[in-house]
Structures are given as structure tokens and as C-alpha cells.
Amino acid sequence: MGEVETALSRIGEAFINVGHAWEVTFAGRIQKLDENKIYYLAHPCTTGGKSIKENKIREEFLYQRIINENPGIRIIRPLQIIPEDMPHEEAMIRCFNMLDAADTIILPMGWEKSNGCSMEHKRAEKKRKERILLRTN
């Protein structure tokens, strides 16, 4: 099998196209992201059975993994920007404004358990944003 065929085989194993979203398996490398796009990194804040501190640590790990494999990529990180004590409604307004400025939303495994991430996913769908659904975090 040639180098190109091997690469295409790995891509097929790592990505599953689900409509306008991509599911990405993190066992291997993260897909090459487009340096011309702006990515919005969604992550649970207070839901999912973890504290804000634990979620921030997990989000930081995920962010580092993405930028290590995609140097120079532009990522909006609302979990690092929005104050922890901000009321949920106000925080979501800010999140939506940031999401609207992005081209693509990246959602970590377990995003469905988060009220905020579910709202962001719904907004991304409505705005026809590209979605990357990670299968591990």
C-alpha cells in the first residue's frame, strides 16, 4: 500500500462524517485544521459531574493537544474568557457572540450532558457552522 493510500486509510478510520459534523477519534492525530478559520472550543463549565476547576484543566489539556498538532491555529476559548461568577444567561449571550464570530465549533466528548454546550451546538446547527465532535477528551 502506498503512502497516500495509507494516509487515506487512516483518515477513514479516524473520521466519521455525520451530516455537517465530523466525529474525530483522538487515538491518533487530530485532523489538520485550517489556519484561515476561527475555531470555537466548547467545553462544559459546571455540568458533567466535574467542578469548574476540573473542567478548566480538561479544556486546557484539549486546547494544548489541538495547538500542538496545529500550530498557528486561532481558537476562541470561552471557558477561559468568561468570569466564573457570571450568571448563566449572560454567559451564554457572550458565548453566542463569540460562536457567531467563529467558522467552526469543536465539541468534546460528553458535550451532550452540558446545558451550555447543548445550547452552543444547537446555535451552531442553526447558523450552519461546521461542527467537529471529538470522541475522546
Can you tell me about this structure?
Helix content is 44%, strand content 18%. It contains five helices and six strands, in the order αβββαβααβαβ. The protein is globular. The chain has helices at 3-14, 52-69, 78-81, 88-101, 115-126; strands at 15-18, 21-24, 38-41, 74-76, 104-107, 130-134. The model is unreliable at 1-23 (pLDDT under 50). It has a six-stranded mixed sheet. It starts with a helix and ends with a strand. Strand 3, helix 2 (52-69) and strand 4 form a beta-alpha-beta unit. The longest helix is centred in the middle third of the chain and has 18 residues, at 52-69. The protein is of the alpha/beta class.
Please tag this protein with its features.
alpha/beta; single chain; 137 residues
Write the layout of secondary structure elements.
Blueprint: H1 3-14, E1 15-18, E2 21-24, E3 38-41, H2 52-69, E4 74-76, H3 78-81, H4 88-101, E5 104-107, H5 115-126, E6 130-134
Parallel strand pairs: 2-6, 3-4, 3-5, 5-6
Antiparallel strand pairs: 1-2
Helix pairs in contact: 4-5
Largest sheet: 6 strands, mixed
Report the helical percentage. 40-55%
Which stretches are low in confidence, meaning pLDDT under 50 for 5 or more residues running?
1-23
Kindly state the mean pLDDT as a whole number? 81
Measure the end-to-end span.
32 Å
User: How are the strands ordered across the major sheet?
Assistant: 1-2-6-5-3-4
- What percentage of amino acids are in beta strands? 15-25%
Order of helices and strands: HEEEHEHHEHE
| Assembly category | single chain
Radius of gyration: 15 Å
**What is the 3D form?**
globular
How many helices? The count is 5
The helix/strand class is alpha/beta
Total strand segments: 6
